């Protein structure tokens, strides 16, 4: 089909947006359509044919993002929009806005109609004694057939939200009453009325935000549905998101120190900066969902379906102020966490080191924690993780260590060149990783420095959240036989590389009125191990696998929709480390130890519990039945509260070279002491030290 617009000229690596004439309406959207289309076609690692299959992908993603929980569209609405299911490819090529305008108008209309539902049901008491249930998994539900079915879906949803609040209040009331006989006991009726009022206030706030939504907001959803049809890591960042990205790259935050993104209508915790309020709390984990936000002692606000920037704005705030977060854990439990906001500086996200000694004190192990593969791209002389780790290793060598542990748990990656340089600290010259673009032969990234920073026994710790650059480093160490990888059954499995382009930089001066456009993060490369296999989907399998509480959950890149596939290419020539590691012997000794370790047995049991709880999606709307199930779940969870709470036999201390600095810097000292406290109860670290002892004895 002939294109209606063509304003992008592709020349080499530069894209220039130019135009001499425009259609006034939807001008910005059409320009973004053109820009994204050209980038996807010419730059994406694995471009798609814009056919009916592509159209269906885009349609399904877009509808899910507009109405995941099927609370707005009727079945007739869905059927009406489905007429475009296999036509979106043609519309995308023609730069047509027909489907977008129609769907945007329809969802806005349905959203505004919800006021009648939540106003009706939240201004009258719910019957919490009635025996009925609610299905919370949208994949197990259908769009309502008519308005009566939609009304009923809203009634059940609102009743469930009220009931869970009442149950939480009853639990809190019971706990408080056990500690003091002066607590005023409220009836279920009183708590139900309070819950409805609080929820109604939240929905009124949400409704006000809905009325303010415009086509720019919807267009971001639509265009990201198109991009996500290619892969889960390519994304369009609207101007506000681009601003947040720039703040992130600056290395300074004022808030709780967590990276958040929207998922299922709420904010999900993607990452936390070491030393930040969220990290220090020890009550927040990656993948936790933030459901409600409260300022100080003010009532909490439900952030369901709130615009991401608005939800994040509620969480951000001046240092030394308090924010209350109601979070839902991966096992389905809901808790409130109170945090004091602070200025979070990247200094706390840099490499740090400690000395570990076992109970005998005979083996001294150096420990380096690397939270991310950082590099200051704005300053050529800025800090780099490879330089910092090299300095930490030198300090550790001065303390006479017998072995070294590099901890990459929860390290989501970062700079690819830094991963290569870091691997180079432990090997002589040689290839580290292969990088493949969509065309041509793979490019081999080598360590060109013959110097070996550390040649002693080496262990690399990983878990499910070790991703990207972490996997490059771990894979290289494993392929060279340079050290042992110890951790969860696998790493995340992200074997792709993205590049961020500021779209404003590509706009011709004559079109400056469309700024700001935002930015595009695009998957442009795939990386492969030197043995020819990619880490995509499968990740890195440790040499020694330890039990993990989430080992039965569906976690990792393989669970992402439309993730790129696993494959392999030709291996490259490399020379393995001269000292062969007795992997099987070390694994057998480790397996024997953990089979007798009650903590690891508890972790296996906890994995079964978490899997079971996560699969429960149908809940009773009878308060007594719900409380009975909740009590049983709470009692079951108490069995696992002692996990990672009991001190191990490890003796952990700061390096002599750091003592003076820690003494002068109270914040740094606090972070170090918290780190020591946490690691002293870390059975994974204890087992890694035991493996090192076995390795030294060999």
- How many H/I helical runs? 20
Please identify, by name, the CATH architecture of the largest domain.
Alpha-Beta Complex
The CATH homologous superfamily of the largest domain = 2-enoyl-CoA Hydratase, Chain A, domain 1
Structural class: alpha+beta
Strand content: 15-25%
Fill in the CATH topology of the largest domain.
2-enoyl-CoA Hydratase, Chain A, domain 1
Please tell me how large the radius of gyration is. Answer: 27 Å
Mean pLDDT, rounded to whole units? 89
How is this fold's topology laid out?
Blueprint: E1 8-11, E2 14-17, H1 27-42, H2 52-66, H3 75-81, H4 88-94, H5 98-121, E3 133-135, H6 147-179, H7 188-212, H8 215-228, E4 235-237, H9 239-250, E5 252-255, E6 258-263, E7 266-272, H10 277-281, E8 289-295, E9 301-302, H11 308-315, E10 322-328, E11 334-340, E12 342-345, E13 352-357, E14 364-369, H12 385-398, E15 403-407, H13 416-424, E16 430-436, E17 443-447, E18 458-462, H14 469-479, E19 484-487, E20 496-502, E21 519-528, E22 544-545, H15 583-595, H16 598-615, E23 618-620, H17 623-638, E24 651-653, H18 656-664, H19 666-679, H20 683-697
Parallel strand pairs: 14-15, 15-18, 18-19, 19-22
Antiparallel strand pairs: 1-2, 3-23, 4-21, 5-12, 6-7, 7-8, 8-9, 8-10, 10-11, 13-14, 13-24, 16-17, 16-21, 20-21
Helix pairs in contact: 1-8, 2-8, 5-6, 5-7, 6-7, 12-13, 13-14, 15-20, 18-19
